[in-house]
Amino acid sequence: MAAALDDLDRKILSELQQDAEQSLDEIARKVGSSKTPVWNRIRRMKEQGVISRQTVILDAEALGLEACFFVLIRTSEHEAEWQRKFLKALKERPEVLEAHRLAGDIDYILKVRVKNARAYDTFYQALISEVKIYNVTALLSMEEIKSTTMLPV
């Protein structure tokens, strides 16, 4: 169930998404409130699970992770044990940034960040050695046009 948020909550969330390192004073000034009500609202939104955690965003290319692959997976296995092993394998791989189970012809899509094609192949070989996969298609992203963690609030 979605949390009940008012305009001030949404303004605070927008500011936090832009830069969570801002001081409470800065956020309060920008949203037209004072420090204590802003702090109380942030605390409430954390308790409600609207704000799940705060982190930093790293530049993948600056870290040498220049290749982004979208991996389309089709499986002929749908048993609980296969799914448990598959999900465990994904969660243990730091290269997997996102994993989604899909409706339609493709069962899963992964977003994988690695140094290069050779590193992707190493990832791929390790994955298929752990779980049986019917079909894998890897699509190399030639250019990242938009990437954001900001949700439309």
UniProtKB/TrEMBL annotation:
Q: What's an example GO cellular component term for this entry?
A: cytosol
Q: Give one GO molecular function term.
A: sequence-specific DNA binding
Source domain of life: Bacteria
Specify the HTH asnC-type domain's residue ranges: 5-66
Q: Which keywords does this Swiss-Prot/TrEMBL entry list? A: DNA-binding, Transcription, Transcription regulation
One Pfam family recorded for the sequence: HTH_24
The alphabetized list of GO BP terms reads: regulation of DNA-templated transcription; response to amino acid
Keyword set includes Nucleotidyltransferase: no
Cell membrane among keywords: no
Tell me the PANTHER family matching this sequence: DNA-BINDING TRANSCRIPTIONAL ACTIVATOR DECR (PTHR30154:SF17), LEUCINE-RESPONSIVE REGULATORY PROTEIN (PTHR30154)
Name of the featured protein: Leucine-responsive regulatory protein
Q: Which organism is it from?
A: Pseudogemmobacter humi
**Which gene codes for it?**
lrp_5
